[in-house]
Amino acid sequence: MANTTIIRIPVSGMTCAACQSRVQRMLQKQPGVADAAVNLMLHSATVTYDPSAIAPSELVEAIRDTGYGAELASSNQTAFEEQEARDTAYEVEWIDLRRKAIASGVIGSIAMIVSMPLMSGHGATNAPDPFLAWTMRVLDPSLRALAPWLYAVPATAISWMLLLATVVVILWAGRNFYTRAWAAFRHRSADMNTLIALGTGSAFLYSLVATVAPGFFLRRGVSPDVYYEAVVIIIALVLTGNAFEARAKKKTSTALRSLVNLQPRTARVIRPGSDDGVDVPVESVTAGEIVLVRPGERVPVDGEITSGESAVDESMLTGESLPVSKHVGDRVIGGTINRTGAFRYRATTLGGDSVLAQIVRLMRDAQGTRAPIQRLADRISGIFVPVVVSLAILTFVVWLVAGNIAGMPAPAVRAFASAVSVLIIACPCAMGLAVPTAVMVATGKGAELGVLIKGGEALQRAGDVTTVVLDKTGTVTEGTPAVTDVVLSPASLHSREAVLFLAASLETMSEHPLADAIVRYAREHHITLSAPVGFASATGRGATGTVSASIVAVGNEALMYTHNVDIAPVSGSAEQLAADGKTIVYVAIDGVLAGVLAIADPIRETSRAAVTRLHGMGLTVIMLTGDTQKTAQSIARLAGIDRVVAGVLPEGKVAEIVRLQAEGNVVAMVGDGVNDAPSIAKADVGMAIGTGTDVAVDAADVVLMRGDLNSVADAIQLSRRTMNTMKQNLFWAFAYNVIGIPIAAGVLYPAFGLLLSPILASAAMAFSSVSVVGNSLRLRRARIG
């Protein structure tokens, strides 16, 4: 689908995987929608759509048609403001749920104590609810001794008191369960709220009839027991689970919240009449203004130093622990900490275009995506609630029939309690949280390590990588090449200075790192350069053009061959320099070889250790480069790399990636994200080495904020740990329901006489969601590296 656009739509009212699945299916059915990913954790939908086929307002209406709230996000809202709004919502949700859980828990405990005389009077030690029966046996003697007056209160009065307390809890603390269940019903849907509302609602209605018309039960030989305390405690336990879940969800966004908090609220701007600067809100800083930063202060906005120097701590963005020296002309990033000297700098990128805002936006978008492993949970959650309701009905029927055949006392009551247990214990929430929580925590952990992962799919694929392909320049090496030797051809008619003048003048038009090294070397030797005419770049070979009436060609052996230039006069020197790991650049003037420039790009100090670490993870490491075989082999030998593919152009790198994939390898390509964009895009996982400022590399799945190959190992190790966590979460979510529902239905009763109380079922249901989120949070403490 061409010309697609991505939009994020906040969705309210979703509480479980069934809600998420319903909204997602509805969006995917809309005309013009290429993909839709609904995230239960973030309460948002990320939709890829064709604007010519459907409007954003129509997507919002489609969501509302499922029974959930939706509205378009403000276009003026920055990434910082969005995250702050989400954090506030998490905090409000946590406080509200905690208050309701505590209040309903206290009311439930009091209700259980007050209901003791009722249970005693109706022989509840043999009640179909095992938990209440056990509670009765344990507490009844002590309560009789401590509060004998309670047993003198008429049973009818106690029942009406419990009814009143339960109504208060249902209408206040548990209100959302019933309103959301009703909304789902009106839209021909069902979710977790449906199960809770059916379970507690049926228990409440049963108790209400027993209170208002006890004769209805007595005429049928059934004791008019009430289960008000069970209703209240079930609501309290579910709310407790939801509160812990909300608190845990808040913790999953800790890393993102920490990034947002990095931006200072004010900036000291140099304004007319004030040499020391004026403190102004950071939002009011405009591009081009001069900002003053003193030691110990945070840099408020991105910019370029105009005076002064310092060491800046960029660890919160790149994961690099050592401060980075900054001088005039260097870029500084908003949110970093100035450690030593004071400096002034010119503000450049502001607001949503700043590096910090880009990182926050990238992380937020990544957390809104789905990992492919989530699809199984999505399929199951789509039919989960109807299946559970059917199982509850089947449980009631089987217990009723079997109870009558076996002559059990009050089989209808026992059947009712078992059916309620099935409804209450079933938990689609854990399935909906299993993968998104892990993605959220993992992307936050990655950001702390200087590894920005662009989504759940990339996170999952990185764990499957078997082969890591590295570009040489700027990846294995420092990426700061420098000219070390200038060798003139014996047949050259030009002096050393003339060769440098012509070569460097031509290269002023090139953006290649080697060209920059040549230009820098010439200027260091005080050679004044001129602008070339007819500049033409030959990708992967070099460049040609006219400088001062001379036709100049600067590049590798392939370029010389293309222009029929004989390189034999310097072949000996070139081979020796290449054997030393230096890159050979030939210079031809008017069709005749003038000389050779040798350029060295030292290997990064951490490259060998990083490659050793990748080997220890069972990975094959390959280096691709356009350099000569001898130079590449020298660098590979120093780094401990398994295999080298040298002399390849960008299209050759892509072909090598395809060949490796055809052999069954899952390939990660690591490069600079610009020259290597085609091969990075073609790889199963594309990793771009960032500069600490460039985070929006479109072709890459993962951006490595540090120029360190250890970040590659960090990304893959983090992915593997995250995948293990996802699998554990999904196993627990499925196993809990597969085991818990049959037990709640009474499958163990014939052999062991065991039944599961609806109260214990609600506790188990609450624990299942909390355990999944808690397991994901362990990734925050995972040791990577």
Model description:
This protein is α+β, with helices and mostly antiparallel strands and 785 residues long. The protein contains 29 helices and 26 strands. The protein has a 7-stranded mixed beta sheet, with helices on both faces. The chain has a 6-stranded antiparallel beta sheet with strand order 6-5-7-13-8-11, with no helix packed on it. The radius of gyration is 35 Å and the shape is elongated. The model is unreliable at 122-128 (pLDDT under 50).
Structural features:
51% helix, 6-stranded antiparallel β-sheet, 17% strand, elongated, 785 residues, 29 helices, alpha+beta, 7-stranded mixed β-sheet
What is this structure, in a nutshell?
The chain is of the alpha+beta class. It is built from 29 helices and 26 strands.
Rg (C-alpha, Å) = 35 Å
Strands side by side in the biggest sheet: 14-26-25-24-15-22-23
Characterize the biggest β-sheet. Answer: 7 strands, mixed
Name the helicity range: 40-55%
- Beta-strand residue percentage: 15-25%
Principal-axis shape equals elongated
Mean pLDDT: 85
Low-pLDDT runs: 122-128
- Span between termini: 41 Å
Number of extended strands: 26
Number of helices: 29
Helix/strand class: alpha+beta
